[in-house]
Amino acid sequence: MLTAPVIDADELETTAETPYLELLPSPVARDEPTEAVRISPLSPSPVPVAHVVLPAQPTARIHWIGGFVDLRHPADLYADIAAGTPNLVVVDARYVEAYTREHLPGAINLPFRELDETTTAHLSREALYVVYCWNASCHASTKTARRLEVLGFKVKELHGGLETWRKQGYPTER
What we know:
about 20% strand; disordered N terminus
């Protein structure tokens, strides 16, 4: 399956004296030099600079700041949960206190700050992980999804989070 190029959300945003967008090819090896291509906008005022990394292979994904491309609609996720779809893991990215108060049926709690190779060692690499947080403006699920993907998991993000899930009338657990 072909996917889109990478825009790395972990890059720090800076303001340039001369506004431009810098395009960097994704190197095959880390020590391989890259050549930047600068694109100047029509506006003469300073604008934020973004580093855009083009994929070395077609397995890359887009990571916009605050958004994760592979979204899962609540109706589709509910249908999968109700059908008992195998290898599906629902992940609540919020703090444990919020998870304890209310979460999606069968969800596990994996807050972003606690994710690393050790804390995810028990998780299946064959499963699809659907991550959510409070709502569309909360970025905990985006950060958790990004971290899981970097650790080698298949990940999607629930569109609209817990807020949209509840508004559409789907059940939660307490």
